[in-house]
From TrEMBL:
<protein>
    <submittedName>
        <fullName>Uncharacterized protein</fullName>
    </submittedName>
</protein>
<comment type="similarity">
    <text>Belongs to the UDP-glycosyltransferase family.</text>
</comment>
<dbReference type="GO" id="GO:0005737">
    <property type="term" value="C:cytoplasm"/>
</dbReference>
<dbReference type="GO" id="GO:0080043">
    <property type="term" value="F:quercetin 3-O-glucosyltransferase activity"/>
</dbReference>
<keyword id="KW-0808">Transferase</keyword>
<dbReference type="Pfam" id="PF00201">
    <property type="entry name" value="UDPGT"/>
</dbReference>
<dbReference type="GO" id="GO:0080044">
    <property type="term" value="F:quercetin 7-O-glucosyltransferase activity"/>
</dbReference>
<dbReference type="InterPro" id="IPR002213">
    <property type="entry name" value="UDP_glucos_trans"/>
</dbReference>
Length: 414
């Protein structure tokens, strides 16, 4: 513990969703281990259990976040911070505020480019429904197609979401921290470094830097780990579409039969309260399938029985999977997931892009291809190679390790 930093307090402001809480609390844990006091500003909606983080302070912001997180929380956050600063002594001066917004460097690049696309009228042609255009590559953002862009429903510059406006207003922040690695997103980070005259700190994968307490907003089912313990090496396909996306009842049924017919053991996260699967399904799969409402995902992906991940490609799931060398079937739903899916499959070569309707036949084929098929061999090998690269990037004197030290120095210079 570096006691000399203890007089600096950092206020972290995560968006109140699992996918944002997770990396922000991991970041808090890392920076706390580097000697900073940590305050987590949170809303009444979706906040972590403070008992899991006895060393952190929690600052509640009383606001209705659902109807507009940024707009509604700004004033109460300001007031709460002002109160904190009135009380602050020299042992806990606020050094900086860290808020979360962007996910991967590639995603931020797309936000950079959207105003240009609008100016060139390129976006409008896709908005008015030119289907063929959706499949075209976006100039400057290859291999992304228009349909892969994270935001699709606005027409002109005045209608830009705050996220994009903020991307262009670098006056409001003094550095950017990424849960990514240079070895993964070198070219996107290089573009951003050129664009911004700001320090960028790619310090991922955050969950591998130091162990953090559980950040799950839902109760993790540890029984699935005992079930995994009984399965053979690399045999299990893990299926989860994260904390927000979901399959409708028809898709659930097709997925169930695709899994059953693949003949692979499967661990499947189904968050819906009731899932009614026919008796014939239960008879077919028996002990070969484990269905749960919420799994300890990082543990699952690190388990030697898991050989593949059917994922919606949220950025946390992406990072957690590639850090463990688990190849993926990429079924993105919205936002950044489409960008991540494209990079997983075409740039890093560790994923199979799922672009079909949800039908049991192709689901079974995709699982077999990924897990054991000849066509999946290259993907499986690339996933192993990428894991090695990521592990290297975290070692002393290599990129993520250095970036973290530079980040600490930067905060101390404020
Ligand atoms: N997660 C989990 N158990 C599950 C499903 C998801 O712990 O059964 C965690 C997962 O490890 C990841 C987060 O929930 O850290 C989901 O974040 P991601 O960015 O992948 O997707 P989102 O939920 O934001 O769409």
């Amino acid at each position: 513990m570096e006691k000399q930093h203890r007089c600096r307090r950092l206020v972290l402001v995560p968006c109140p969703f699992q996918g944002h809480m997770t990396p922000m609390l991991q970041l808090g844990t890392i920076l706390h281990s580097r000697g900073f006091y940590i305050t987590i500003a949170h809303t009444q909606f979706n906040f972590p259990n403070p008992l899991n983080f006895p060393d952190f302070n929690f600052l509640e912001i009383y606001e209705d976040v659902i109807s507009g997180f940024n707009a509604n929380c700004k004033a109460p956050l300001r007031e709460s911070l002002a109160r904190m600063m009135e009380k602050e002594d020299q042992h806990s001066k606020i050094a900086c505020i860290i808020y979360d917004e962007y996910i991967s460097a590639a995603n931020m690049l797309t936000y950079q480019e959207i105003p240009r696309l609008l100016k060139d009228d390129l976006w409008y042609s896709t908005y008015v429904g030119a289907e063929a255009m959706m499949l075209e590559l976006v100039p400057g953002l290859e291999p992304l197609r228009f349909k892969d862009l994270p935001i699709t429903n606005f027409r002109d510059l005045d209608d830009l979401p705050q996220l994009i406006v903020n991307a262009h207003d670098s006056r409001s922040y003094s550095a950017i921290i990424w849960n990514t690695m240079d070895c993964l997103e070198q070219s996107s980070l290089a573009h951003l470094r050129q664009e911004y005259q700001l320090p960028l700190f790619p310090i991922g994968p955050l969950h591998r830097t130091i162990p953090a307490p559980s950040i799950s907003l839902l109760k993790e089912d540890q029984n699935c780990i005992s079930w995994l313990d009984k399965q053979s090496h690399n045999s299990v396909i893990y299926v989860s579409v994260g904390s927000i996306a979901f399959l409708d009842s028809k898709e659930l049924a097709e997925m169930a039969w695709g899994l059953a017919n693949s003949e692979h053991p499967f661990l499947w996260v189904v968050r819906t309260d009731s899932i009614s699967l026919p008796e014939s399904f239960q008879e077919t799969v028996g002990e070969r399938g484990c269905i749960t409402k919420w799994a300890p995902q990082k543990q699952v992906l690190a388990h030697s029985a898991v050989g593949g991940f059917w994922s919606h490609c949220g950025w946390n799931s992406t990072i957690e999977s590639i850090s463990e060398g688990v190849p993926m079937i990429c079924q993105p739903y919205f936002g950044d997931q489409r960008v991540n899916s494209r990079y997983l499959s075409l740039v890093w070569g560790v994923g199979l892009e799922w672009e079909n309707d949800m039908n049991r036949g192709p689901i079974k084929e995709a699982i077999r291809m990924l897990m054991v098929g000849k066509e999946g061999e290259v993907i499986r090998q690339s996933a192993k190679d990428l894991k090695v690269k990521i592990e290297l990037s975290m070692k002393q004197a290599v990129s993520s390790y250095n970036s973290l030290n530079e980040l600490v120095d930067q905060i101390l210079s404020f």
